[in-house]
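note to self: dont lose this again. the chain is below, predicted strucutre after it. 304 aa total, dont forget to put it in the shared folder this time
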Amino acid sequence: MSLEKDHHHDHSHAPANFNRAFAIGIVLNIVFVAIEAFYGWRVNSLALLADAGHNLSDVAGLVLAWGGALAVKLRPNARHTYGWKRATILAAFANALLLLVAMGGLAWEAVGRLLSPQVLVQEQGVTIMVVAGIGIVINTATALLFMRGRDSDLNIRGAFMHMAGDALVSAGVVVAGALTLWMGWTWLDPVTSLAIAGVILLGTWGLFKQSLHMLFDGVPDSVDPHAVRDCLAALPGVSAVHDLHIWAMGTSHIALTAQLVMPHGHAGDAFLQDATRQMHDRFEITHVTLQVVSVPFTRACADL
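---
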């Protein structure tokens, strides 16, 4: 006889009381991206355009985090038994791909500017400093919206760190504009844009790889599959663990299925509840389905 248990669905990754923070942060940053991109185009500053791209990536990050909080509230149905959680992975992949292309284009243009430097007049330098200074204020204010939740929620912590980092990047643009204006270092604007593009590319490449990995049902980076197998194998009465599968249903929900071989039977629901609790507490796996058998009767997927 086989027994199956699937429970302990935890949906507390993005508290509802941060909806207002997400909304305010997204609106503030969209407005700033538009302002920064317009003045970057107007004064022909790649540093401002690159920083606008950076801020756009953070808007996407805030949207994804908020979307994940809302997606977990959509109820599954007969056709979508896991709900719509995977939409966050698809959105992350699309945003990463678009940002990689955009930053590659900016980097190419910056190299061209280095080879053919342009003179930056005083009005341009002042504009760069003022716009980037506004960015410091907006990014700092947005980070403060998430400060109180950064220690208790990973999604909120990511939003906080992203926006705090943006404030530092905007500060770098202010310094570049000041030095270009006062010292006449025309090469500093494209160099700054290259540095910003490099930072974005490094961060986005990680997002691209992780989202692609998750799209193909790869084990999330936060979970050690060998430690999970060892934990299940150490449960009382378990002689072997077969067909262990771990994958992400969304950016904040992990699922697991496994077959536990127990020749002498098991202790009923108490045993399954303890196993599920350990998967949640040790590995943050929120959807656990375990099949208990006394004799294996299926071939492992790796052997097919």
